[in-house]
Amino acid sequence: MSARYTTLAAAVTLAVAFSAPVDALTITRAFSGLWVDAAQPARGLGAEVVAGTTGPELHAYWFTRDAAGKPLWIKAQGPIKGNVAVLDASVASVSPTVHWGKVTASFDDCGHGTLAFQPDDSRQRTAASSIVRASASSTDACTGGLSDDHVASNDVRIVQFLGNTGVVPAASGKARFEDRGDRSDFKVQVEDLPAGAYSLRVAGTERATLNVVAASIGTFAEAEFRSPVEPGKLLLDFDPRAQLVEVVQGSTVFLSRTFAGGTRDDDANPGGTLERYVLELEAANDGPQMRAVLDDGRGRSEFSVELEDFAPGRYTLLVNGAEQGAIDVVAVEGGTEGEIEFRDPPEPGHADLDFDPRGQSIAIVADASIVLSGTFPSVPTNSIGHGNGNDDPPGDDHGGGGNDDPPGDDHGGGGNDDPPGDDHGGGGNDDPPGDDHGGGGNDDPPGDDHGGGGNDDPPGDDHGSGGGRGRGRH
Protein backbone atom coordinates (compact mmCIF):
# COMPACT_ATOMS: atom_id res chain seq x y z
CA MET A 1 0.00 0.00 0.00
CA SER A 2 1.29 3.49 -0.81
CA ALA A 3 2.23 5.97 1.89
CA ARG A 4 -0.77 8.06 0.88
CA TYR A 5 -3.28 5.28 1.44
CA THR A 6 -1.62 4.21 4.68
CA THR A 7 -2.01 7.72 6.05
CA LEU A 8 -5.61 8.00 4.90
CA ALA A 9 -6.55 4.58 6.23
CA ALA A 10 -5.13 5.52 9.62
CA ALA A 11 -7.25 8.66 9.62
CA VAL A 12 -10.40 6.64 9.11
CA THR A 13 -9.87 4.91 12.46
CA LEU A 14 -10.36 8.31 14.11
CA ALA A 15 -13.81 8.91 12.61
CA VAL A 16 -16.88 6.99 11.51
CA ALA A 17 -16.33 6.62 7.77
CA PHE A 18 -19.82 5.44 6.84
CA SER A 19 -23.27 4.69 8.16
CA ALA A 20 -26.26 2.76 6.87
CA PRO A 21 -29.48 4.63 6.05
CA VAL A 22 -31.71 1.57 6.57
CA ASP A 23 -31.61 -1.86 8.17
CA ALA A 24 -30.13 -4.27 5.65
CA LEU A 25 -31.67 -7.63 4.80
CA THR A 26 -32.71 -9.38 1.62
CA ILE A 27 -34.50 -12.66 0.92
CA THR A 28 -31.85 -15.08 -0.33
CA ARG A 29 -31.73 -18.78 -1.21
CA ALA A 30 -31.00 -19.46 2.46
CA PHE A 31 -34.64 -18.54 3.24
CA SER A 32 -35.82 -21.60 1.32
CA GLY A 33 -37.37 -24.32 3.43
CA LEU A 34 -40.31 -24.93 5.76
CA TRP A 35 -41.82 -22.14 7.87
CA VAL A 36 -44.74 -22.50 10.32
CA ASP A 37 -47.34 -20.21 11.84
CA ALA A 38 -45.96 -19.22 15.24
CA ALA A 39 -49.46 -19.31 16.78
CA GLN A 40 -50.75 -22.38 14.90
CA PRO A 41 -47.86 -24.76 14.10
CA ALA A 42 -50.19 -26.96 12.02
CA ARG A 43 -50.29 -24.18 9.41
CA GLY A 44 -47.13 -23.98 7.31
CA LEU A 45 -45.36 -22.37 4.39
CA GLY A 46 -43.02 -24.15 1.99
CA ALA A 47 -40.69 -21.52 0.46
CA GLU A 48 -38.21 -21.71 -2.39
CA VAL A 49 -36.08 -18.81 -3.70
CA VAL A 50 -35.33 -19.23 -7.42
CA ALA A 51 -33.82 -17.20 -10.24
CA GLY A 52 -36.55 -15.51 -12.29
CA THR A 53 -36.28 -13.85 -15.69
CA THR A 54 -35.92 -10.38 -14.16
CA GLY A 55 -34.35 -11.28 -10.82
CA PRO A 56 -34.85 -13.55 -7.79
CA GLU A 57 -38.37 -14.79 -7.02
CA LEU A 58 -40.03 -16.43 -4.04
CA HIS A 59 -42.17 -19.49 -4.84
CA ALA A 60 -44.33 -20.75 -1.97
CA TYR A 61 -47.08 -23.17 -0.89
CA TRP A 62 -49.33 -22.23 2.03
CA PHE A 63 -51.77 -24.55 3.81
CA THR A 64 -54.95 -22.81 4.99
CA ARG A 65 -58.76 -23.22 4.80
CA ASP A 66 -61.40 -21.86 2.46
CA ALA A 67 -64.49 -19.85 3.41
CA ALA A 68 -66.34 -23.05 4.31
CA GLY A 69 -63.51 -24.22 6.57
CA LYS A 70 -62.25 -26.91 4.23
CA PRO A 71 -58.48 -27.56 3.87
CA LEU A 72 -56.93 -25.55 1.04
CA TRP A 73 -53.47 -25.41 -0.55
CA ILE A 74 -52.42 -22.08 -2.06
CA LYS A 75 -49.48 -21.72 -4.43
CA ALA A 76 -47.93 -18.29 -4.95
CA GLN A 77 -44.93 -16.63 -6.57
CA GLY A 78 -43.56 -13.15 -7.03
CA PRO A 79 -40.44 -10.97 -7.28
CA ILE A 80 -38.18 -10.28 -4.30
CA LYS A 81 -37.44 -6.68 -3.34
CA GLY A 82 -35.11 -6.58 -0.37
CA ASN A 83 -36.77 -8.32 2.56
CA VAL A 84 -40.26 -8.31 0.96
CA ALA A 85 -41.92 -10.42 -1.75
CA VAL A 86 -45.45 -9.73 -3.02
CA LEU A 87 -46.83 -13.02 -4.32
CA ASP A 88 -49.64 -13.67 -6.76
CA ALA A 89 -51.62 -16.63 -5.35
CA SER A 90 -53.90 -19.27 -6.83
CA VAL A 91 -55.63 -22.42 -5.58
CA ALA A 92 -53.24 -25.33 -6.09
CA SER A 93 -55.73 -28.20 -5.86
CA VAL A 94 -58.04 -27.30 -8.76
CA SER A 95 -57.73 -27.17 -12.52
CA PRO A 96 -58.08 -24.87 -14.36
CA THR A 97 -56.29 -22.50 -12.01
CA VAL A 98 -58.47 -20.33 -9.82
CA HIS A 99 -56.97 -17.03 -8.66
CA TRP A 100 -56.96 -16.69 -4.85
CA GLY A 101 -55.48 -13.24 -4.17
CA LYS A 102 -52.21 -11.76 -2.91
CA VAL A 103 -49.79 -12.82 -0.19
CA THR A 104 -47.07 -10.47 1.03
CA ALA A 105 -44.12 -12.17 2.71
CA SER A 106 -41.69 -10.05 4.73
CA PHE A 107 -38.81 -11.11 6.97
CA ASP A 108 -37.26 -9.44 10.00
CA ASP A 109 -34.26 -11.80 10.06
CA CYS A 110 -33.30 -15.31 9.02
CA GLY A 111 -35.67 -16.90 11.52
CA HIS A 112 -38.76 -14.68 11.69
CA GLY A 113 -41.23 -13.30 9.17
CA THR A 114 -44.79 -12.21 8.50
CA LEU A 115 -47.40 -13.22 5.94
CA ALA A 116 -50.14 -10.73 5.08
CA PHE A 117 -53.15 -12.08 3.13
CA GLN A 118 -55.36 -10.29 0.61
CA PRO A 119 -57.89 -12.91 -0.63
CA ASP A 120 -60.24 -12.16 -3.52
CA ASP A 121 -63.07 -13.65 -1.42
CA SER A 122 -63.82 -11.16 1.37
CA ARG A 123 -65.19 -13.99 3.53
CA GLN A 124 -61.75 -15.50 3.93
CA ARG A 125 -59.17 -14.66 6.56
CA THR A 126 -57.23 -11.42 5.95
CA ALA A 127 -55.24 -11.12 9.19
CA ALA A 128 -51.45 -11.44 9.12
CA SER A 129 -49.57 -14.47 10.46
CA SER A 130 -46.19 -14.48 12.13
CA ILE A 131 -44.00 -17.30 10.83
CA VAL A 132 -40.85 -18.96 12.19
CA ARG A 133 -38.46 -21.59 10.90
CA ALA A 134 -39.70 -25.13 11.34
CA SER A 135 -36.11 -26.11 12.20
CA ALA A 136 -33.82 -23.75 14.09
CA SER A 137 -30.77 -25.32 12.42
CA SER A 138 -31.95 -23.92 9.08
CA THR A 139 -31.08 -20.45 10.35
CA ASP A 140 -27.42 -21.25 10.96
CA ALA A 141 -26.37 -21.04 7.30
CA CYS A 142 -28.41 -17.89 6.60
CA THR A 143 -27.00 -14.34 6.64
CA GLY A 144 -29.63 -12.37 4.76
CA GLY A 145 -26.80 -11.14 2.55
CA LEU A 146 -25.38 -11.75 -0.90
CA SER A 147 -23.09 -14.61 0.19
CA ASP A 148 -26.16 -16.83 0.66
CA ASP A 149 -26.54 -16.89 -3.12
CA HIS A 150 -22.92 -17.67 -4.02
CA VAL A 151 -22.49 -20.25 -6.78
CA ALA A 152 -19.71 -22.62 -5.74
CA SER A 153 -17.67 -22.45 -8.96
CA ASN A 154 -18.06 -18.71 -9.53
CA ASP A 155 -15.44 -16.90 -7.44
CA VAL A 156 -15.35 -13.30 -8.69
CA ARG A 157 -13.18 -10.25 -7.99
CA ILE A 158 -13.92 -6.98 -9.78
CA VAL A 159 -12.18 -3.62 -9.30
CA GLN A 160 -13.04 -0.40 -11.11
CA PHE A 161 -12.32 3.30 -10.75
CA LEU A 162 -15.30 5.64 -10.53
CA GLY A 163 -15.60 8.33 -13.18
CA ASN A 164 -15.28 11.99 -12.19
CA THR A 165 -18.23 14.12 -13.34
CA GLY A 166 -16.14 17.32 -13.26
CA VAL A 167 -17.75 18.97 -10.23
CA VAL A 168 -14.58 18.44 -8.16
CA PRO A 169 -11.89 17.57 -10.75
CA ALA A 170 -9.36 16.36 -8.16
CA ALA A 171 -11.75 13.82 -6.60
CA SER A 172 -11.40 10.11 -7.30
CA GLY A 173 -12.98 6.86 -6.20
CA LYS A 174 -12.64 3.12 -6.52
CA ALA A 175 -15.12 0.25 -6.09
CA ARG A 176 -14.15 -3.35 -5.35
CA PHE A 177 -16.38 -6.43 -5.27
CA GLU A 178 -15.41 -9.96 -4.26
CA ASP A 179 -17.68 -13.01 -4.21
CA ARG A 180 -16.23 -16.29 -2.96
CA GLY A 181 -17.32 -19.44 -1.20
CA ASP A 182 -17.14 -18.13 2.36
CA ARG A 183 -18.11 -14.49 1.91
CA SER A 184 -19.06 -11.58 -0.36
CA ASP A 185 -17.47 -8.12 0.00
CA PHE A 186 -18.11 -4.73 -1.59
CA LYS A 187 -16.03 -1.64 -0.79
CA VAL A 188 -16.13 1.93 -2.13
CA GLN A 189 -13.33 4.41 -1.39
CA VAL A 190 -13.32 8.12 -2.24
CA GLU A 191 -10.52 10.68 -2.06
CA ASP A 192 -10.12 14.45 -2.32
CA LEU A 193 -13.78 15.41 -2.02
CA PRO A 194 -14.55 18.39 0.24
CA ALA A 195 -15.13 17.21 3.82
CA GLY A 196 -18.76 16.37 4.55
CA ALA A 197 -21.47 13.75 4.20
CA TYR A 198 -22.14 12.09 0.83
CA SER A 199 -24.62 9.41 -0.19
CA LEU A 200 -23.44 6.19 -1.79
CA ARG A 201 -26.11 5.06 -4.24
CA VAL A 202 -26.27 1.75 -6.04
CA ALA A 203 -28.93 1.34 -8.75
CA GLY A 204 -30.61 4.52 -7.47
CA THR A 205 -30.91 3.27 -3.87
CA GLU A 206 -28.97 4.89 -1.04
CA ARG A 207 -26.81 2.20 0.57
CA ALA A 208 -24.59 4.20 2.94
CA THR A 209 -23.50 7.66 3.98
CA LEU A 210 -19.85 8.42 3.29
CA ASN A 211 -18.44 10.81 5.89
CA VAL A 212 -15.45 12.39 4.15
CA VAL A 213 -12.84 13.52 6.67
CA ALA A 214 -9.61 15.46 6.37
CA ALA A 215 -6.31 13.58 6.54
CA SER A 216 -2.69 14.69 6.44
CA ILE A 217 -2.88 14.39 2.65
CA GLY A 218 -6.27 15.31 1.16
CA THR A 219 -9.54 13.77 2.34
CA PHE A 220 -10.85 10.22 2.48
CA ALA A 221 -13.86 8.00 3.23
CA GLU A 222 -14.87 4.43 2.55
CA ALA A 223 -17.91 2.19 2.94
CA GLU A 224 -17.48 -1.56 3.44
CA PHE A 225 -20.19 -4.16 3.02
CA ARG A 226 -19.88 -7.86 3.84
CA SER A 227 -21.97 -11.01 3.90
CA PRO A 228 -21.86 -12.60 6.43
CA VAL A 229 -21.65 -9.26 8.21
CA GLU A 230 -18.89 -8.57 10.71
CA PRO A 231 -18.19 -5.69 13.15
CA GLY A 232 -17.38 -2.39 11.48
CA LYS A 233 -19.04 -3.34 8.19
CA LEU A 234 -22.56 -3.22 6.74
CA LEU A 235 -24.47 -6.27 5.60
CA LEU A 236 -24.12 -6.72 1.84
CA ASP A 237 -27.76 -7.36 0.98
CA PHE A 238 -27.58 -6.20 -2.65
CA ASP A 239 -25.61 -7.13 -5.78
CA PRO A 240 -23.67 -4.17 -7.25
CA ARG A 241 -22.73 -5.98 -10.46
CA ALA A 242 -23.98 -4.28 -13.64
CA GLN A 243 -25.48 -1.49 -11.48
CA LEU A 244 -24.84 2.26 -11.47
CA VAL A 245 -22.64 3.25 -8.50
CA GLU A 246 -22.76 6.96 -7.57
CA VAL A 247 -21.37 9.29 -4.90
CA VAL A 248 -23.79 12.18 -4.50
CA GLN A 249 -24.63 15.08 -2.25
CA GLY A 250 -28.19 16.28 -2.70
CA SER A 251 -28.83 16.34 -6.43
CA THR A 252 -25.14 16.70 -7.35
CA VAL A 253 -23.28 13.63 -8.61
CA PHE A 254 -19.52 13.76 -7.99
CA LEU A 255 -18.39 10.24 -8.95
CA SER A 256 -20.21 7.67 -11.06
CA ARG A 257 -19.64 4.36 -12.85
CA THR A 258 -21.73 1.43 -14.05
CA PHE A 259 -20.03 -1.45 -12.28
CA ALA A 260 -18.83 -4.41 -14.33
CA GLY A 261 -20.14 -7.96 -14.23
CA GLY A 262 -23.51 -9.64 -14.41
CA THR A 263 -26.02 -10.76 -11.82
CA ARG A 264 -25.62 -13.34 -9.06
CA ASP A 265 -26.28 -16.22 -11.48
CA ASP A 266 -23.85 -15.11 -14.20
CA ASP A 267 -20.37 -16.52 -14.58
CA ALA A 268 -17.19 -14.84 -13.48
CA ASN A 269 -16.27 -13.26 -16.81
CA PRO A 270 -17.37 -9.61 -16.73
CA GLY A 271 -17.37 -8.12 -20.21
CA GLY A 272 -17.71 -4.57 -21.44
CA THR A 273 -15.33 -2.03 -22.89
CA LEU A 274 -11.74 -1.68 -21.73
CA GLU A 275 -10.93 2.02 -21.37
CA ARG A 276 -7.32 2.98 -22.10
CA TYR A 277 -5.56 6.12 -20.86
CA VAL A 278 -2.12 6.93 -22.32
CA LEU A 279 0.52 9.57 -21.51
CA GLU A 280 3.70 9.78 -23.66
CA LEU A 281 6.56 12.16 -22.89
CA GLU A 282 9.98 12.77 -24.44
CA ALA A 283 12.65 15.10 -23.01
CA ALA A 284 14.10 15.99 -26.43
CA ASN A 285 14.69 14.47 -29.83
CA ASP A 286 16.07 10.98 -29.13
CA GLY A 287 16.16 11.84 -25.42
CA PRO A 288 14.59 10.00 -22.43
CA GLN A 289 11.07 8.77 -23.16
CA MET A 290 8.22 7.71 -20.86
CA ARG A 291 5.00 5.91 -21.70
CA ALA A 292 2.32 5.48 -18.99
CA VAL A 293 -0.79 3.40 -19.70
CA LEU A 294 -3.90 2.67 -17.61
CA ASP A 295 -6.30 -0.06 -18.79
CA ASP A 296 -9.52 0.04 -16.78
CA GLY A 297 -12.50 -2.28 -17.26
CA ARG A 298 -13.54 -5.90 -17.64
CA GLY A 299 -13.11 -6.46 -13.93
CA ARG A 300 -9.53 -5.25 -13.59
CA SER A 301 -7.29 -2.17 -13.65
CA GLU A 302 -3.68 -2.20 -14.85
CA PHE A 303 -1.24 0.70 -14.80
CA SER A 304 2.27 0.57 -16.26
CA VAL A 305 5.08 3.09 -16.69
CA GLU A 306 7.85 2.32 -19.22
CA LEU A 307 11.10 4.26 -19.55
CA GLU A 308 13.43 4.24 -22.56
CA ASP A 309 16.74 5.95 -23.30
CA PHE A 310 17.29 6.98 -19.67
CA ALA A 311 20.76 6.65 -18.18
CA PRO A 312 21.01 3.26 -16.40
CA GLY A 313 20.09 3.47 -12.72
CA ARG A 314 17.15 3.60 -10.30
CA TYR A 315 14.37 6.17 -10.73
CA THR A 316 11.44 7.04 -8.45
CA LEU A 317 7.86 7.18 -9.75
CA LEU A 318 5.75 9.93 -8.19
CA VAL A 319 1.98 10.11 -8.72
CA ASN A 320 0.40 13.32 -7.43
CA GLY A 321 3.54 13.84 -5.36
CA ALA A 322 3.36 10.45 -3.63
CA GLU A 323 6.05 7.84 -4.17
CA GLN A 324 4.54 4.73 -5.77
CA GLY A 325 7.60 2.68 -6.66
CA ALA A 326 11.07 2.48 -8.16
CA ILE A 327 12.01 1.75 -11.78
CA ASP A 328 15.37 0.15 -12.54
CA VAL A 329 16.62 1.18 -15.97
CA VAL A 330 19.11 -1.24 -17.53
CA ALA A 331 21.07 -1.42 -20.78
CA VAL A 332 19.55 -3.48 -23.58
CA GLU A 333 20.46 -3.93 -27.21
CA GLY A 334 20.00 -0.54 -28.90
CA GLY A 335 19.44 1.52 -25.75
CA THR A 336 18.09 1.30 -22.20
CA GLU A 337 14.72 0.50 -20.68
CA GLY A 338 12.88 -0.07 -17.43
CA GLU A 339 9.26 -0.68 -16.43
CA ILE A 340 6.97 -0.91 -13.41
CA GLU A 341 3.51 -2.51 -13.50
CA PHE A 342 0.56 -2.23 -11.10
CA ARG A 343 -2.62 -4.29 -11.06
CA ASP A 344 -5.87 -4.58 -9.15
CA PRO A 345 -6.82 -7.35 -8.47
CA PRO A 346 -3.15 -8.03 -7.68
CA GLU A 347 -1.17 -10.84 -9.26
CA PRO A 348 2.44 -12.04 -9.05
CA GLY A 349 4.93 -9.72 -10.71
CA HIS A 350 2.72 -6.62 -10.32
CA ALA A 351 2.55 -4.04 -7.55
CA ASP A 352 -0.85 -3.41 -5.96
CA LEU A 353 -2.73 -0.61 -7.75
CA ASP A 354 -4.11 1.19 -4.71
CA PHE A 355 -4.11 4.68 -6.26
CA ASP A 356 -5.88 6.38 -9.17
CA PRO A 357 -3.49 8.08 -11.62
CA ARG A 358 -6.21 9.74 -13.72
CA GLY A 359 -5.87 13.52 -13.79
CA GLN A 360 -2.77 13.35 -11.56
CA SER A 361 0.79 14.52 -12.11
CA ILE A 362 3.24 11.78 -13.13
CA ALA A 363 6.93 12.44 -12.48
CA ILE A 364 10.15 10.45 -12.91
CA VAL A 365 12.74 11.54 -10.37
CA ALA A 366 16.47 10.82 -9.97
CA ASP A 367 18.66 12.32 -7.23
CA ALA A 368 15.82 14.62 -6.12
CA SER A 369 15.55 16.08 -9.64
CA ILE A 370 12.60 15.61 -12.01
CA VAL A 371 13.73 14.07 -15.30
CA LEU A 372 10.29 13.92 -16.95
CA SER A 373 6.84 14.95 -15.76
CA GLY A 374 3.34 15.46 -17.12
CA THR A 375 -0.34 15.21 -16.27
CA PHE A 376 -2.01 11.86 -16.84
CA PRO A 377 -5.28 12.00 -18.84
CA SER A 378 -8.52 12.20 -16.87
CA VAL A 379 -10.61 10.84 -19.76
CA PRO A 380 -9.92 7.73 -21.86
CA THR A 381 -7.57 8.09 -24.80
CA ASN A 382 -9.54 5.34 -26.52
CA SER A 383 -11.73 2.31 -25.82
CA ILE A 384 -10.64 -1.19 -26.80
CA GLY A 385 -13.07 -3.70 -28.17
CA HIS A 386 -13.15 -3.34 -31.97
CA GLY A 387 -12.03 -5.83 -34.59
CA ASN A 388 -10.26 -5.40 -37.91
CA GLY A 389 -12.66 -2.81 -39.17
CA ASN A 390 -11.62 -3.16 -42.79
CA ASP A 391 -15.13 -2.84 -44.17
CA ASP A 392 -16.60 -0.23 -41.84
CA PRO A 393 -18.04 3.17 -42.74
CA PRO A 394 -15.79 6.22 -42.66
CA GLY A 395 -14.19 6.90 -39.27
CA ASP A 396 -14.81 3.36 -38.07
CA ASP A 397 -11.57 1.44 -38.57
CA HIS A 398 -9.83 0.58 -35.31
CA GLY A 399 -8.31 -2.69 -36.33
CA GLY A 400 -6.93 -4.17 -39.52
CA GLY A 401 -6.11 -2.95 -42.97
CA GLY A 402 -8.85 -0.46 -43.56
CA ASN A 403 -7.75 -0.29 -47.17
CA ASP A 404 -11.20 -0.04 -48.70
CA ASP A 405 -12.62 2.91 -46.80
CA PRO A 406 -13.41 6.41 -48.03
CA PRO A 407 -10.93 9.26 -47.49
CA GLY A 408 -10.02 9.93 -43.86
CA ASP A 409 -11.00 6.44 -42.80
CA ASP A 410 -7.87 4.28 -42.89
CA HIS A 411 -6.35 3.43 -39.54
CA GLY A 412 -4.88 0.12 -40.52
CA GLY A 413 -3.15 -1.21 -43.62
CA GLY A 414 -1.78 0.11 -46.84
CA GLY A 415 -4.17 2.87 -47.74
CA ASN A 416 -2.23 3.30 -50.97
CA ASP A 417 -5.23 3.96 -53.20
CA ASP A 418 -6.88 6.83 -51.35
CA PRO A 419 -7.17 10.47 -52.42
CA PRO A 420 -4.67 13.04 -51.14
CA GLY A 421 -4.55 13.35 -47.36
CA ASP A 422 -5.97 9.90 -46.83
CA ASP A 423 -3.05 7.49 -46.36
CA HIS A 424 -2.52 6.30 -42.81
CA GLY A 425 -1.29 2.86 -43.65
CA GLY A 426 0.93 1.48 -46.40
CA GLY A 427 3.14 2.87 -49.14
CA GLY A 428 1.41 6.05 -50.18
CA ASN A 429 4.16 6.55 -52.77
CA ASP A 430 1.98 7.92 -55.55
CA ASP A 431 0.14 10.74 -53.76
CA PRO A 432 0.59 14.48 -54.22
CA PRO A 433 2.88 16.43 -51.88
CA GLY A 434 1.87 16.34 -48.21
CA ASP A 435 0.00 13.07 -48.63
CA ASP A 436 2.34 10.25 -47.55
CA HIS A 437 1.59 8.72 -44.16
CA GLY A 438 2.49 5.20 -45.06
CA GLY A 439 5.20 3.60 -47.19
CA GLY A 440 8.25 4.80 -49.06
CA GLY A 441 7.27 8.31 -50.04
CA ASN A 442 10.62 8.56 -51.84
CA ASP A 443 9.44 10.62 -54.82
CA ASP A 444 7.74 13.52 -53.05
CA PRO A 445 8.95 17.10 -52.78
CA PRO A 446 10.78 18.24 -49.66
CA GLY A 447 8.70 18.13 -46.48
CA ASP A 448 6.44 15.41 -47.83
CA ASP A 449 7.74 12.09 -46.47
CA HIS A 450 5.72 10.55 -43.63
CA GLY A 451 6.24 6.97 -44.56
CA GLY A 452 9.12 4.89 -45.87
CA GLY A 453 12.67 5.73 -46.89
CA GLY A 454 12.42 9.45 -47.46
CA ASN A 455 16.03 9.26 -48.61
CA ASP A 456 15.91 12.16 -51.08
CA ASP A 457 14.61 14.93 -48.83
CA PRO A 458 16.52 17.81 -47.27
CA PRO A 459 17.82 17.52 -43.68
CA GLY A 460 15.08 17.34 -41.04
CA ASP A 461 12.49 16.07 -43.51
CA ASP A 462 12.41 12.30 -42.90
CA HIS A 463 9.49 10.95 -40.88
CA GLY A 464 9.74 7.37 -42.01
CA SER A 465 12.13 4.46 -41.90
CA GLY A 466 15.23 6.18 -43.24
CA GLY A 467 15.16 9.34 -41.16
CA GLY A 468 16.16 8.29 -37.63
CA ARG A 469 15.32 5.95 -34.78
CA GLY A 470 11.69 5.31 -33.76
CA ARG A 471 10.01 5.20 -30.40
CA GLY A 472 11.05 1.66 -29.68
CA ARG A 473 8.87 -0.95 -27.98
CA HIS A 474 5.27 0.04 -27.32
Topology:
Blueprint (H helix, E strand, L loop, with lengths): L2 H10 L5 E2 L13 E5 L6 E8 L4 E10 L5 E11 L2 E8 L6 E10 L4 E8 L9 E5 L22 E9 L7 E9 L2 E9 L4 E7 L2 E10 L4 E9 L6 E2 L8 E6 L2 E7 L15 E9 L6 E9 L2 E9 L4 E7 L2 E11 L2 E10 L6 E2 L8 E6 L2 E7 L6 E3 L90
Parallel strand pairs: 15-16, 24-25
Antiparallel strand pairs: 1-14, 2-3, 2-9, 3-4, 4-5, 5-6, 6-7, 7-8, 8-9, 10-11, 10-18, 11-12, 12-15, 13-14, 13-17, 14-15, 17-18, 19-20, 19-28, 20-21, 21-24, 22-23, 22-26, 23-24, 26-27
Structure overview:
By secondary structure, this protein is mainly beta. It folds into 4 domains: 129 residues, Sandwich (Immunoglobulin-like); 116 residues, Lipocalin; 109 residues, Immunoglobulin-like (Sandwich), CATH 2.60.40; 83 residues, no CATH class. The chain is 2% helix and 44% strand. The strands form 3 sheets. Strands 19, 20, 21, 22, 23, 24, 25, 26, 27 and 28 form a 10-stranded mixed β-sheet that branches. An 8-stranded antiparallel beta barrel has the order 10-11-12-15-14-13-17-18. Strand 20 and strand 21 form a beta hairpin. The longest helix has 10 residues. The radius of gyration is 31 Å and the shape is elongated.
